[in-house]
Specification:
By secondary structure, this protein is of the alpha/beta class. About 50% of the residues lie in helices and about 10% in strands.
C-alpha cells in the first residue's frame, strides 16, 4: 500500500529543475511504493505522438505549457501514483494548485553546477537549444522557478552528488515519519 504518511494524499509529485533526477528518482520511488509511475513530459509525447522539442518548435513554449497543464490535470486525478513533472510545470498557478491539492509534493533541489553537468549532452531540452551559455540559462530559470518550487513543496530533498536510491529512501523515511500509522521505513528494501 502507498505510504500512509501522505497526510491523506495518495500521490507523490516530484518537482524541480531539469537535471534534478525527477524521472530516475520517481521510477525508483514508485517501485518502493508499489505504485504506478508517470512522467508528465513522456505522457505529453505519448498523447501527441511527437517529442517535446517538436511541440516547442511548432507551438512555442505557450502551446507546450497548455498541453502540460491539460496532462497534469488529467494525470493527477488518478491515485495512487508517483508523477515526475517537467521543470517548468510550476510556472502556471493552475498546475501549482493541482499538484499541491492532489498529492504530496517533493521538491528535488539541485545546484546549477549539477544541472549543467547532468544535462550537458541532452538533446531533448528545448530551453537549452542554441543557448551559448547553458549554465547562465539554468541560473536564470532557477531564479524564476525556485520560489515556486518552494511554495508548494511538502518536502525538499537535495540531490547533488547523491544516488537515486538514497534520495528515494529519504523521501520514504519522511513519508513514514509523518504518519503515526506507518511502521518506520516499512517501504524500504532490506539492506
Amino acid at each position: 500500500m502507498l505510504a500512509r504518511a501522505m497526510l491523506g494524499k495518495r500521490n507523490v509529485f516530484l518537482i524541480g529543475p531539469m537535471g534534478s533526477g525527477k524521472t530516475a528518482v520517481g521510477k525508483y520511488l514508485a517501485r518502493l511504493l508499489d505504485a504506478p509511475f508517470y512522467d508528465s513530459d513522456a505522457e505529453i509525447e505519448r498523447r501527441t505522438g511527437v517529442d517535446i522539442p517538436y511541440i516547442f518548435e511548432k507551438e512555442g513554449e505557450a502551446g507546450f505549457r497548455e498541453r502540460e497543464r491539460e496532462t497534469i490535470d488529467a494525470l493527477t486525478h488518478s491515485e495512487p501514483m508517483v508523477l515526475a513533472t517537467g521543470g517548468g510545470a510550476v510556472l502556471r498557478p493552475e498546475n501549482r494548485n493541482c499538484l499541491a491539492s492532489r498529492g504530496f509534493v517533493v521538491y528535488l533541489e539541485t545546484s546549477v553546477a549539477q544541472q549543467t553537468h547532468r544535462v550537458r549532452h541532452a538533446r531533448n531540452r528545448p530551453l537549452l537549444t542554441n543557448v551559448a551559455d547553458p549554465a547562465a540559462k539554468l541560473e536564470q530559470l532557477m531564479r524564476e522557478r525556485a520560489p515556486l518550487y518552494a511554495e508548494i513543496a511538502d518536502l525538499t530533498v537535495t540531490t547533488d552528488g547523491r544516488r537515486v536510491r538514497s534520495v528515494a529512501e529519504e523521501i520514504i523515511r519522511a513519508l513514514d515519519a509523518a504518519s503515526p500509522a506507518a511502521a518506520p521505513t516499512d517501504h524500504l528494501p532490506p539492506t
